[in-house]
Amino acid sequence: MADNHPEDEPSLSVVIQNTSSVKQDELFHCHKMSPGSCFLLPHGTRVYNKLIEFIKKEYWRRGYEEVISPNIYNMKLWETSKDAASYKENMFTFDIDKQEFGLKSINGPGHCLMFEHRVRSYRELPIRLAEFGVLHRNEASEALSGLTYTRRFQQDDAHIFCTKDQVKREVKDVLDFVDYVYTKFGFTYELKLVTRPEENTKDFQRWEEGENDLVEALQEFGKPFTVNRGVGALCGPKIDITLSDAMKRKFQCASIQLDFQLPDHFKLRYSPSDEEKKENVMIYSKVLGSEDKDKGVRPFMIHRTVLGSFERMLAILLDHYKGKWPFWISPRQVIVCSSSNNENDRSYAEEVRRQIHEAGYHVDVDTTDRNISEKVGEAEIVQYNYILVVGDEEVATRQVTALLRDSSCSDRSKVPMMSVDALLDVFKLRIVKFL
């Protein structure tokens, strides 16, 4: 989006260095028939869905409401949001019934329509609307790059509508959210407060109060931050969050943006408390105008992402883990290998696979007539987290020999056998602990 838009994703390029892992994992591919839109293959979709599932669970825990908004809007919406004036050339537009429409490139304006579709009360706030909607941006062909710079993508986008007094707490909660998620992936990160651009000579009071809220939220959060003065977006102050992966490369994926403009553009309002009316009548009468100050109060709006674009995050994680995905997010969690080609071994291998599959894990089976060393060696190359070997002894005891990826023990005789139920308990623990 335009540089002053809060939902703009940074123009960075992630170079996937571990290309052999891409081929082995079969996560995605690109095709000239749809430039800028990636095809996620089954294994890529597994990781993609795990990322979304992870964020959805956190939304449930943190009081977000998931919504779904249209993909196509009349261009009048983008004129109201002021995006048409600055960004129309980067949108996919077309005519329907002699009216101009555009594919959704951001979620914020649609969420504003959801907020204003009925009268809102201060008792409802904060309202946290989250969406994984498909977005399209008509980026230049020369800028397109695999998963990292695309025309079609999804992100963990959310908008928080709140009162002025709730801003600091909501920002602090988002910072806690980011910290929780990034810690699970082993990312470190840096925080940067971005303040009012020098060319903005309006809304000094709102900017000053907004910046103070962000500073206080950062201070309460307790981690160091820097200040980038005078280069912020026109809509409000923000916090940029730059993560570092295992190779110490830096990417901006998360952001927290106060937006003073969209609520004004859409004339959003809510019914305030009596106390709020007394405290803020002068401020908001200037914002709303004296003719409609009694009709309600403008909400504050916070744009925020945590992972950002799921496509880009998939590329970052691919290099971060070097293809060795943790069990909880791995596209290849388990493979069951029969140690021989006899019917009993093959039948039991299939039985174990079904049991693990029904428990909800990604599991494959290899009952080919190759020797067991070849099967295990191939499974190790493609980075299965667990390689389960079953032979005569395992069949007789209804157990499995579980070889863990990167285990220093290559001698099967030294690996204790265990029941499938006991192994499933291990799996559950690894999922809970994000291992």
UniProtKB/TrEMBL annotation:
Keyword Protein biosynthesis: yes
Transmembrane regions listed in the UniProt entry: none
Residues making up the signal peptide according to the UniProt record: none
Pfam families for this protein: HGTP_anticodon, tRNA-synt_2b
UniProt entry tagged with the keyword ATP-binding: yes
Keyword list, A-Z: Aminoacyl-tRNA synthetase, ATP-binding, Ligase, Nucleotide-binding, Protein biosynthesis
Record field: catalytic activity: tRNA(Thr) + L-threonine + ATP = L-threonyl-tRNA(Thr) + AMP + diphosphate + H(+)
Domain of life, source organism: Eukaryota
Aminoacyl-transfer RNA synthetases class-II family profile domain span: 42-326
EC number(s) on file: 6.1.1.3
Family membership noted in the UniProt record: Belongs to the class-II aminoacyl-tRNA synthetase family.
Protein name, as recorded: threonine--tRNA ligase
Organism: Brassica cretica
